[in-house]
Write a structure and sequence with these properties.
alpha/beta, single chain, Glucose Oxidase, domain 1, about 25% strand, eight-stranded mixed beta sheet
Length: about 475
């Protein structure tokens, strides 16, 4: 099959301006049969669900710096070794440690209510007696600025709904999540004593969503997320002129120094160009609520089992496929940065990096980002050919723009970064909540994600030219 494909490329090279289009045809012809074999093998039986059971039910949530994360790292390394993968190792990484502790938000007036909440990762705590103040609900940064004179001494609530347009791509997330990250600083700038944010989701059944904040200013105030329902209630009361008094208590604190952790790595070593690498993976850490099933236990297991599926079929591509399970994505990105730092000299030989961190839902295709936009256009066309040979999984498409937080540090070195795209319509129902548990994962869709990852990684690691390069 390789000789046939190489000959086809020699003819294509003579075709001038039609080369990119005809290259895609040749790629589909060369790898269509092996893609169907991989998909059929994954669907006939794989170990993904058992692995995800072990990670979610036996280990549980995996907050950075916690004993659970240490157990997850040990489990992942043992599982990769048991499946026969080569060069299994733990890459040491020093990471931040944040502890949640006991926490609560109470409405004291106009009536007593215990409000469902979750402190934001990295937040400072309150004094033992808590912080008590009148709430000020604002709809945006501009609204806060306009009411700056009212913010001093108040608990500022950013009641900013996540837009529900184009939920399949998660398009509305960036609009609302900005206030989770920066709300505490914005409120502190105007003298607030604490900050609350509306949970970043379009649907809620009194489920709070946590996530990381970033302190940039000198004054650090405690911050938490409350449910969309109570954010809306506080806003309605304020609009009617009814004062809302709240008490926030948080024992949150961060360790003074970083603590040891690790990325977990395993490989299927390439047959002809072992120094050239395709990275596939997700992040092994999670928040300390739920089980981190969709975010991102499923992504880790999909990458692990994709490699195992190829090994069981006896498929060894030209280049090395390397699984990397990154630590500390949720509240630091130390794992992704450390990988790019330690492998800086080898990054020119990284032909692609694929991250799965959007949940185990219906696969829609791939997005790709390259520093060189001309190369990116070629890569999109090549990925579309791969999507076409994944037709047993549905109609998949490739587009420009993709990647992930952990593989982002590789992009400046010229590594094409890919995101495995899925239907995210219901991802933010569970994202960063106690509801992100194994029962929310469909085993058939987990298998679909495994198959898509296995085919894409294999083709990228085996095709004669690199992703984004013309023959």
């Amino acid at each position: 099959m390789r000789l046939q494909f190489t000959g086809a490329l020699a003819l294509i090279a003579l075709a001038g301006g039609c080369a990119a289009e005809r290259q895609d045809v040749a790629l589909a012809r060369a790898y269509g049969d092996v893609a169907r074999r991989i998909v059929a093998a994954a669907e006939a039986g794989n170990d993904g669900w058992r692995k995800l059971e072990q990670l979610c039910d036996d280990v549980g949530h995996r907050l950075s710096g916690s004993p659970n994360l240490d157990r997850a790292i040990d489990w992942a390394a043992a599982a990769l070794a048991a499946d026969g993968h080569e060069n299994v190792r733990k890459q040491p990484v020093m990471i931040p440690k944040w502890v949640r502790g006991a926490e609560s938000v109470e409405m004291l007036a106009p009536l007593p209510i215990d409000i469902p909440m979750l402190g934001l990762g990295g937040s400072v705590g309150t004094p033992p007696a808590g912080v008590e103040a009148e709430a000020l609900s604002v709809a945006s940064e501009e609204d806060l600025t306009a009411r700056a004179s009212e913010a001093a001494g108040r608990i500022v609530l950013f009641d900013v709904p996540m837009p529900d347009d184009d939920e399949a791509s998660g398009a509305g997330y960036g609009t609302a999540v900005r206030y989770r990250g920066a709300g505490a600083d914005l409120a502190a700038r105007h003298g607030a004593v604490a900050a609350l944010v509306r949970s970043v989701t379009t649907r809620s059944m009194q489920t709070p969503h946590t996530g990381a904040l970033r302190y940039r200013g000198d004054k650090r105030i405690p911050a938490a997320a409350i449910t969309t329902e109570y954010a809306a209630l506080i806003t309605r009361l304020q609009q009617r002129g009814v004062p809302v008094r709240l008490r926030l208590k948080m024992q949150a604190h961060s360790a003074d120094e970083r603590v040891p952790s690790a990325n977990v790595i395993g490989e299927l070593v390439g047959s002809e160009k072992p120094a050239e690498v395709v990275v596939i993976g997700g992040h092994i850490d999670s928040w300390d609520v739920g089980q981190g099933a969709h975010d991102d236990g499923g992504g880790c297991v999909a990458a692990m089992e994709a490699l195992t599926t190829l090994r069981r079929l006896g498929l060894r591509p030209r280049r090395t496929i390397r699984v990397v399970l990154f630590t500390n994505e949720e509240n630091g990105l130390a794992g992704g940065r450390k990988y790019a730092e330690d492998y800086a000299d080898a990054l020119p030989n990284h032909v692609a990096a694929i991250e799965s961190d959007s949940g185990m839902f219906q696969v829609l295709g791939y997005g790709v980002s390259c520093e060189d936009k001309q190369r990116e256009a070629v890569a999109v066309a090549q990925l579309q050919a791969i999507c076409d040979i994944l037709s047993p999984l549905g109609k998949l498409t490739a587009k420009a723009g993709g990647g992930g937080a952990d593989i982002g540090p590789m992009r400046p070195a010229g590594v094409p970064t890919l995101g495995q795209r899925v239907d995210m319509t219901h991802y933010f129902d569970y994202h960063h909540t106690p509801a992100d548990t194994l029962d929310k994962v469909d085993p058939k869709l987990l298998t679909q994600n495994i198959a898509a990852m296995a085919v894409t990684a294999y083709v990228l690691a085996d095709m004669p030219e690199r992703l984004g390069s013309r023959p």
